[in-house]
Amino acid sequence: MKDALDELAAARRAMGKGSLPAGDAYTIEVRRRYRAQIEDVWDAVTDPERLGRWLNPVTGDLRLGGRFELDGGEHGEILRCEPPRLLRVSWLYGPEADAWPGTSEVELRLAPGPAGDTEFELIHAAAVGEPLFPTYGPGAGGVGWDLRLLSLARLLAGVEPVDHEMVEKSAEAREFIRRSAAAWGEAHLAAGGEPEHVAAAVEATTGFYAPDPT
To answer: Per-domain residue ranges for the chain?
Structure first.
């Protein structure tokens, strides 16, 4: 568990503002360093076999302008691809989301670090007014990314990635989720969120990702 919490603490989280084809957006941003060469990290986020081990199995036309679909229901188009430094995709969830194109994008930025490691940045932009934010705040997507990036860290370290289906059955994983939700609450407050709204969003996010066992 300590290793997982160390990974959680290694990331810097922030909320920001951005723009999308559909209009104004808010962003959730995660920055951290991986102890791996930039080419290895790029391969892990673009190779279908490795991508499926830390994110979800992926199918589609995996090239610039092509469309992809993940096993979890996320899908979109590859908008920019500049190996090994930049990848941007549209990011929609579920078939109903296709009626609102341009409302969500994910961008990955990689840069070589000073000691042969890699500076990693993930920016997820979602249209202002998307329905999950009022209830869950940035933790709606942020906790999910924290869990996935924990798996990516383990993959890059040569350790078996997290079994996400076991999350609700593990007290350790529930603690990881609780701390992740709290960390996104801190980012929300730093971005000007109202304390009462932030507290309610953190509680709702924790309950969504780690509901009380029955």
So the answer is: 2-209
The fold adopted by the segment(s) 2-209 is Alpha-D-Glucose-1,6-Bisphosphate; Chain A, domain 4 (3.30.530)
Can you give the pLDDT of all 214 residues of the chain as single tens digits? 568 889 999 999 999 999 999 889 999 999 999 999 999 999 999 999 999 999 999 999 999 999 999 998 999 999 999 999 999 999 998 777 666 678 899 999 999 998 899 999 999 999 988 888 999 999 999 999 999 999 999 999 998 776 666 555 678 888 999 999 999 999 999 999 999 999 999 999 999 998 877 6
- 138 burial class (0-12, 13-18, 19+ CB within 10 angstroms)? buried
Strands (E) located in 83-157: 86-90, 92-93, 104-112, 118-127
